[in-house]
Amino acid sequence: EINQAGLSWDIILKKQANFSEAFDVYDIQKIADYREEKVDELLQNPGIIRNRLKINAVIYNANQVLLIQKEFGSFKGWLDSHLGKSKEEWVKLFKKQFKFVGGEIVNEFLMSTGYLPGAHHPGCFRYDELNQKASPAN
């Protein structure tokens, strides 16, 4: 999601396999341990978006996820602890916790994972759970 910022999804989707390979199949621990040599390697990789700020944000965010996992048991546990927030509240939370995230990135992530209303239809097993936690009575 970070690498899409300012670019079309078409560009990112065409580079998806390259990103996966370059970023160790998105292994959070490996990414969190990246050092300057790996950053230099990524900056030379024509198969990905070669933007130092975005690469550094990926590494920083991996470290943030590890901290979240340590505190909440999992990233999902952290997300679940914030169920019921509005999109604006989620964006504020993500901007406080992570780098290179904004309204569109947060919205896409939360919609794709079902944490924002509208991502699930009434027949979906997650619909009642999400709507119940999002109601003002809770």
**Any idea what the shape is?**
globular
Uncertain residue segments = none
Average pLDDT, all residues: 88
Helicity range: 55-70%
Largest beta sheet, briefly? Answer: none
Strand content: under 5%
Q: Tell me the total number of β-strands.
A: 0
**Gyration radius from CA atoms, angstroms:** 16 Å
SS element count, helices: 9
Structural class: mainly alpha
Q: Please trace the helix and strand order, writing H or E for each element.
A: HHHHHHHHH
* Straight-line distance between termini: 31 Å
Q: Could you outline the blueprint of secondary structure elements for this entry?
A:
Elements: H1 9-14, H2 16-22, H3 28-32, H4 36-43, H5 52-72, H6 75-80, H7 87-97, H8 103-113, H9 127-134
Question: Which features would summarize this protein structure in a list?
Answer:
138 residues, mainly alpha, 60% helix, globular
Structural write-up:
The protein is an all-alpha fold and 138 residues long. It is 60% helix and 0% strand. It is built from 9 helices and no strands. The protein is globular. It starts with 8 loop residues before the first helix and ends with a helix. 10% of the residues are buried.
